[in-house]
Design a protein that fits this description.
single chain, ribosome biogenesis, alpha+beta, five-stranded antiparallel sheet, BOP1/Erb1, repeat
Length: about 800
């Protein structure tokens, strides 16, 4: 029983809903009949309405329960699809057929006339619209509902009956809305699309689902190929909202062209329409309103009276002051008159007061004293002078009384000059710094406070027949060795200037160096491709005998290693000259230097290959090439006096190598074109370099890799530089024939920079073949300097 009662409840509700729908239909039809009776007209005079051309509707919900009012008002469900529209058409056909059967011939005839009229009016138009016809059957009458479904989903309909017509419905002002033109495929709204550039999607659709970006975006190559191959590329635009390419139609392209040319978007718009004057200029007889004026329009207002009384009281009390009229006169001020420090111009820092005029004196009086009057000679002299040279710009004159004084002839001229003084006077005060030129010169100690240093020429060593390229002193300072282009090596006694020994060699001597070890008596001489170790037999017998024993005690190794040079024992003739060892190089040698301990020897070859620098060990007669590759052309080399450092000078820089670690430590930039010579301070922290562009660069190794000071005292190329071992002195020799001795004090305090002071210029050498001083060397114990020149002499300055 409960089950049966439950199933019968929905049936009862369905029957009740159907009965309610029938009652509502009857009421609507009765109301329509009442409206139609008011507008009865002849059937033939009823206006025929043409169907407007619009796009197809998205769909209609034409269920049997829809009332005629919903169809007339144009309200539809825009969310239905095309299948609903097909079902609606079928429902309309069924209702129409049922109406024909009930009404008979009258209704059928009316239907055929409407169909014929519709087909005639819609001929030649694109089939983009649907005619919706709906008939409702009432008691003996038929109501035909005809409408056109448009693109925006609204319906404009007509309601006709036999012999009756209705007026056109009112146009809905919200029928066309700009919101319908928006693309609703992406519902993100009016937001920048750059916000989605880091996300895989570009927005959301109507259902809230993500709209994903295309898997592969077009790069420039795809864009170029598309431009070349796609014929519609020029009419394709990219939609950022949906990440799709849209092909513009001809109508859209013509619209773009019209907008670009400044025309209106609508083709049918007439921009020159005749002006319609809504308000005519004729005065009408009857007024628009015949309303009489109010009483308050001609009676004084009490509120305004109260306001005026308050303002009058405020003016009397002085609370409200009347506005003063603005002064229209321009204000001028004298630029030069105010010298008061409290004035605006006086407070300005750069203000310059006006130049004051000279006060009048006795000579300008109309009755000056007799001593101010000029004589005839003075008058003639004044007239002959130029106006600029005259002390007075006028001639003093004497008059009996003030009435007889004529007008001043130079009044306008002097006023004009005064204006020029005011106008051309500089308006800007320039701060001039009064600097004494002597203060700019660095304060250096006087040379007499830096003594001792060599000042005069004491001895001249003559004997060579050609230019003397190199000199060297023994560690004791008693002997001097010199090498010349006359293929000889001469040994001199320093104190007397006597040539003790002359040794002939097989070529021009390029370099000569005495062994710095006082226990060994050896002199290294290089000429051509040979380096000769020479025993001069000038020292103590014990010393040079010990030197010979040291060289003779060499024992050849069992396995000979390949060496870049050849070590040879001289023959009997050469050993009588003092030759002890001969080192033959593959190329010519241009420099040789000793290590401070006296066992190692370095030689520089004049070759641009990898074998430019060689280091030899005398005790083991072994040679090696320390560098696999030389950077640049090596000019000279030198050992550090204390540390295991090796200095290699190329054309523009000096490289410092650590021989133990076998690595580059520093690179000193000389800032010169071509380095010619190099010397190292006995302390080992300072280096000087001479160059062919007449510069001497002092380097402080603890300070920087750039020169601490650059001296340009010489006028020509520098050939040699040298440090003194004990005194703070260094010297440089140049092709200008001079030797400049400088005081170079190096302090133990690292915070104090070296003191460099030029103290003396020594001259004595004569220029030969545009060459002057070729080498300089200091005495090891005394403040003496030796110089060798192109004039085949050696000079001693003490």
């Amino acid at each position: 029983m409960h089950a049966v009662s439950k199933s019968s409840e929905p049936r009862k509700t369905a029957k009740m809903s159907k009965s309610r729908e029938k009652n509502t239909k009857r009421r609507v039809v009765e109301d329509d009949e009442d409206q139609l009776d008011l507008f009865k007209e002849n059937k033939d005079e009823a206006p025929q309405k043409q169907v407007e051309k619009d796009g197809p509707s998205d769909g209609e919900d034409s269920d049997d329960s829809d009332s005629e009012e919903s169809v007339f008002s144009g309200l539809e469900d825009s969310g239905s699809d095309s299948e609903d529209s097909e079902e609606d058409e079928e429902d309309f056909e069924e209702e129409a057929s049922s109406g024909d059967e009930n009404q008979g011939e009258g209704s059928s005839g009316l239907k055929t006339k409407q169909e014929l009229s519709f087909t005639k009016k819609t001929q030649g138009k694109p089939q983009r619209e649907k005619l919706l016809v709906k008939e409702k059957t009432t008691a003996g009458k038929t109501v035909v509902l005809k409408g056109v479904a448009k693109d925006n989903g609204t319906v404009q309909g007509e309601k006709k009956s036999k012999g009756q017509a209705i007026p056109p419905p009112q146009v809905d002002e919200y029928e066309h809305d700009t919101s319908d033109e928006e693309d609703i495929r992406n519902t993100v709204g009016n937001v920048p699309m750059e916000w989605y550039q880091d996300y895989p999607h570009i927005g959301y659709d109507l259902e809230g689902k993500k709209i994903f970006k295309p898997i592969r975006n077009k790069d420039e190559l795809d864009e170029f190929l598309d431009k070349m191959e796609n014929p519609d590329y020029w009419r394709t635009v990219h939609d950022k909202m949906t990440s799709t390419d849209i092909r513009l139609t001809d109508e859209q392209i013509s619209l773009v062209h019209r907008l670009q040319s400044g025309q209106f978007g609508d083709v049918n718009f007439n921009e020159y329409e005749p002006y319609i004057d809504f308000f005519s200029g004729e005065t009408m007889i009857h007024p628009v309103t015949n309303r009489p004026q109010d009483k308050r329009s001609f009676i004084p207002s009490l509120i305004e009276k109260e306001k005026v009384s308050k303002m009058v009281h405020a003016i009397k009390m002085g609370w409200i002051k009347p506005r003063k009229p603005k002064e229209s006169d321009l204000q001028f001020y004298d630029l030069w008159a105010k010298e008061d420090p409290n004035a605006i111009l006086g407070r300005h820092k750069m203000h310059v007061p006006a130049p004051k005029m000279k006060l009048p004196g006795h000579e300008e009086s109309y009755n000056p004293p007799p001593e101010y009057l000029l004589t005839e000679e003075e008058r003639l002299a004044w007239e002959q002078q130029d106006p600029e040279d005259r002390k007075l710009s006028f001639l003093p004159q004497k008059f009996s009384c003030l009435r007889s004084v004529p007008a001043y002839s130079r009044f306008i001229h002097e006023r004009f000059e005064r204006c020029l003084d005011l106008y051309l006077c500089p308006r800007q005060r320039k701060m001039r710094v009064n600097v004494d030129p002597e203060d700019l010169i660095p304060k250096l100690p006087k040379p007499r406070d830096l003594q001792p240093f060599p000042t005069i020429q004491s001895l001249i060593y003559r004997g060579h027949s050609s230019l003397v390229r190199c000199i060297s002193l023994s560690p004791s300072g008693q002997w001097l060795a010199s090498g010349s282009d006359d293929c000889t090596v001469r040994l001199w006694e320093v104190s007397t200037g006597r040539c003790m020994k002359t040794v002939e060699v097989g070529g021009a001597v390029r370099s000569i160096v005495w062994n710095p070890n006082p226990a060994i008596c050896l002199v290294a001489v290089c000429f051509n491709e040979t380096v000769v170790l020479l025993n001069p037999y000038l020292a103590d017998k014990l010393v040079y005998n010990a030197t010979d024993q040291l060289i003779a005690s060499y024992v050849e190794p069992e396995e000979e290693r390949p060496q870049p040079v050849q070590w040879q024992v001289p023959e009997i003739e050469d050993s009588d000259k003092g030759f002890r060892l001969i080192i033959t190089h593959p190329k010519s040698v241009k420099q040789v230097t000793w290590h401070s301990k006296g066992d190692y020897l370095a030689s520089v070859l004049s070759d641009n290959s990898n074998m430019q620098v060689l280091i030899h060990q005398v005790s083991k007669r072994r040679s090696q090439n320390p560098f696999r590759k030389n950077k640049g052309l090596v000019q000279c080399v030198s050992f550090h006096p204390i540390r295991p450092y090796f200095f290699v000078a190329s054309q523009r820089c000096v490289r410092v190598y650590n021989l133990i670690k076998q690595e580059l430590m520093k690179k000193l930039m000389a800032n010169c074109k071509w380095i010619s010579s190099m010397a190292i301070h006995p302390g080992g922290d300072n280096v000087i370099c001479g160059s062919y562009d007449s510069r001497l660069s002092w380097f402080d190794l603890d300070l920087s890799t750039k020169p601490y000071k650059v001296l340009r005292h010489h006028k020509k190329a520098l050939r040699g530089v040298a440090f003194h071992k004990n005194y703070p002195l260094f010297a440089s020799g140049s092709d200008d024939g001079s030797v400049i001795v400088c005081h170079g004090m190096v302090y133990n305090d690292l915070l104090q920079n070296p003191l460099i002071v030029p103290v003396k210029v020594l001259k004595g050498h004569t220029l030969t073949h545009n060459l002057g001083v070729l080498d300089v060397a200091f005495h090891p114990t005394q403040p003496w300097v030796f110089s060798s020149g192109a004039d085949a002499t050696i000079r001693l300055f003490t």
